[in-house]
Design a protein that fits this description.
This protein is an alpha/beta fold. Helices cover about 35% and strands about 15% of the residues. Helix 1 links the parallel strand 1 and strand 2. The C terminus is likely disordered.
Length: about 525
């Protein structure tokens, strides 16, 4: 079956929903918002800490936020992208509030701002310790009440459609690749339909589920990045995978691991060994509030040196009632594993959290493929450079959704539907035995990535990952050609593709910068003079 929409949005977090609401303002275009499970299962909904924006002008300004972002990114961030996000952030905060999102305020009605690692000032707007869930709630209500937006849950994008599907040879040197929509699997019926569009937006979120432990939900399998790469689009900076330093250590809960917000360290929590000894002074003068790449490597090293499965976060010295008020969800979550954070140390360990690279886009969120935009964690705007500054991701998504909406609305009348696209060939079937193989291969991808492409790498480890992923790739592609496409095998293909990209681009970077730490290339002091 063929469906036609002016705008096809693949992914339903803050990036996809905010873009949908922005283009819906025109009240003249049809919009399909496709999500592979339900609208509330996103990386956005898992975000705890908050959203960064210069708000308190008495002490803060754009220059400080820009500088903090560049420092955290190890001076690899694109200055234009940084400037665009930081200077447009306040206006986008206002729009989030107009859509019904609530942020905590003080008694004088000013925002109750938090401070997180790498920030020089208090500039993190939040809603208790479940900011992402509040943003998701507000946007979901607005989207569901908008008559111009059609929400299609349990719709999983298999491939984006380009000239390749018309029998035209497309390579990475082809300069005029265009996107005409996507083949999308209805996971309830098992049928793959053709969705034609004038403009397509990829907002599929992150890649954390390709690691054995992650703060991301299990849906974060890098689908958009993999689809665009297979369509010969440009993907970059994949070596920069951010590991959150403080996920709750609980071996029974790995996808997702429960996040202990960085805001807790901004609040005053201290990292310690289980015996109570502090250790961050050995690694950075900013102690527990150093940027995430530094803190994660420090914890990783302490765990290896002392043979530990976790370190601890100590907030017992703070007022108990205040701690419960600031972090109610973390307090109750920790109680479920027998930890009272007002009295006990919190066991924490790093795990995969955020992809700083992705589909390369310009300041208008345009990818290298015509009529195709990418926003949110699946995109690489250049904002994060070698390491994302805490709480910069949610605001990046909304700012770039605005840029994508403005640009796409200015050109959409130049496009039409391509009615020559053939329908998907869904011949084949999968046996239960083959399904077991797919499940096992998913676990193997996680083991390979966590063992060989984790916080600390080496060329030897990366080559081992490459060899194992290559074998999995060959096996999976041969299977994919024989069976009817399902969500599981498509996710496995995407996970292998993304793992390959991270590994290859990690091997290509012959230095240790930001989140990419290779033991074969000791870190060098970066000259930050004239970086602008």
């Amino acid at each position: 079956m063929v469906h036609k929409y002016d705008f096809l949005i693949i992914g339903g977090g803050v990036a996809g929903m905010s873009f949908a609401l922005k283009v819906a303002k025109t009240q003249k275009y049809s919009i399909a918002l496709c999500v592979k499970t339900t609208l509330d299962e996103t990386n956005t909904s898992k975000a705890q800490g908050g959203i960064a924006s210069v708000t308190n002008l008495a002490v803060d300004n754009f220059e400080k936020h820009i500088h903090d972002t560049m420092v955290a990114g190890d001076w690899l961030s694109d200055p234009q992208a940084v400037h665009q996000v930081v200077t447009n952030a306040p206006e986008q905060i206002k729009e989030l509030i107009q859509w019904g999102v609530s942020f905590d305020k003080k008694e004088d009605s000013s925002f109750d701002l938090h401070k997180e690692g790498g920030h020089s000032e208090h500039r993190i707007l939040h809603h208790a310790d479940d900011t992402g869930a509040e943003i998701q709630r507000g946007l979901m209500e607005s989207v569901k009440n908008n008559p111009y937006i059609t929400v299609l849950e349990n719709h999983f994008a298999v491939e984006i459609i380009t000239q390749h599907h018309l029998g035209i040879r497309v390579t990475r040197k082809t300069t005029d690749i265009e996107c005409y929509g996507a083949y999308i699997l209805d996971t309830c019926s098992g049928k793959i339909d053709t969705f034609l569009s004038k403009v397509t937006l990829i907002a599929t979120g992150g890649i954390g589920a390709i690691y054995a432990t992650t703060t991301n939900p299990s849906v974060a399998t890098g689908d958009g990045i993999a689809m665009v790469y297979r369509a010969k689009g440009t993907v970059c900076d994949m070596e920069f995978v951010q590991f959150h330093p403080t996920a709750l250590y609980n071996p029974k809960e790995t996808h997702p691991a429960y996040l202990i917000s960085e805001a807790m360290r901004g609040y005053g929590a201290v990292l310690r060994l289980p015996n109570g000894e502090e250790f961050m002074h050995k690694y950075d003068e900013r102690l527990s509030l150093a940027p995430r790449d530094i803190v994660a490597r420090a914890i990783d090293n302490e765990m290896k040196v002392h043979g530990l499965e976790h370190v601890c976060l100590d907030v017992t010295h703070k007022n108990a009632d205040e701690t419960k008020r600031h972090f109610p969800n973390i307090y109750h979550k920790c109680l479920t594993i027998g930890v009272d954070i007002t009295k006990d140390f919190i066991p924490v360990a790093p795990c995969a959290h955020y992809m700083c690279g992705g589909i390369k886009v310009n300041l208008n969120a345009q990818s290298s493929i015509g009529r195709l935009y990418a926003v949110g964690e699946c995109s690489c705007t250049g904002l994060h450079g070698g390491n994302r500054l805490a709480s910069n991701s949610l605001i990046e998504a909304v700012v770039y959704a605005e840029a994508a909406a403005k640009h796409s609305l200015s050109v959409i009348e130049n496009y039409d539907f391509n009615d020559k696209i053939p329908e998907w060939n869904d011949a084949g079937m999968m046996t239960n035995e083959e399904q077991v193989l797919v499940s096992q291969d998913k676990r193997e991808v996680g083991q390979v990535m966590s063992t060989y492409v984790g916080i600390v790498r080496s060329d030897l480890r990366l080559h081992r990952a490459w060899d194992r992923l290559d074998l999995l790739y060959e096996e999976t592609e041969n299977l994919f050609k024989r069976v009817r496409a399902s969500r599981d095998i498509c996710e496995l293909r995407n996970m292998i593709n993304v793992g390959y990209l991270i590994t290859r681009q990690a091997l290509e970077r012959k230095e240790s910068r930001g989140l990419h730490f290779n033991m074969d290339y000791p870190p060098q002091k970066i000259n930050t003079n004239n970086v602008w």
